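Exodeoxyribonuclease 7 small subunit, Polymorphum gilvum. Tokens?
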Amino acid sequence: MTLGADPARVSIETRFQPIETAMTTDTPAPELSALSFEEALGQLERIVQALEQGNVPLEKSIEMYERGAALRSHCDRLLKAAEEKVEKIQLGADGGARGTTALDPES
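Tokens:
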């Protein structure tokens, strides 16, 4: 982006360069398994923002949507894994910690 340029007129390719770069066939997108939750969520947020603006060509929109769906699944898997690690503290009659149990997602 050049100095003095109207941000509303800057192309989607300029504002979302990391996503656009990741979406080209010359530079493959990083493997999902290598992305942290925060990295995947950041990419997903940029994709959603770009698609909501509606300035992306149809073919690119489809590619970005597919990448977004994969990122969402990856984030869901990471959240589930983190949830399984969370433990609930059991309190004894005296109010002190008695032990831990695995988180029951149903309760």
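The longest strand covers residues 97-102.
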